[in-house]
Amino acid sequence: MDMRAILVAIVIGLVAGWLASIVVGGGGLVRYIITGLIGAFVGSFLLGALGINLGIGNPLVSQILTATIGAIVVVLLARLIA
Fold first, then answer.
1. Span 4-34, pLDDT tens digits
2. Burial code of 44-76, b = ≥16 C-beta within 10 A, e = fewer?
3. Pair 73, 39: CB distance under 8 Å
């Protein structure tokens, strides 16, 4: 994996974590990145398992939205467990 791909993944995670925090609350730069990166995996798995296609032509926006959905799920599950 090259450095550019890593930076893009971090930026997607940051944006997704920030968007998820708007919906479910929370804060902090590190929390945004961690939640967004974990959310990207969870969102991709969930949407794939449910057969949901977002239908967004821009791949970057699609990845951010998928990661945001996953991050929201991760935060809500963490709150249920805690």
1. 988 888 899 899 999 999 999 877 888 888 8
2. eeebeeeeeeeeeeeeeeebbbbbbbbbbbbbe
3. yes
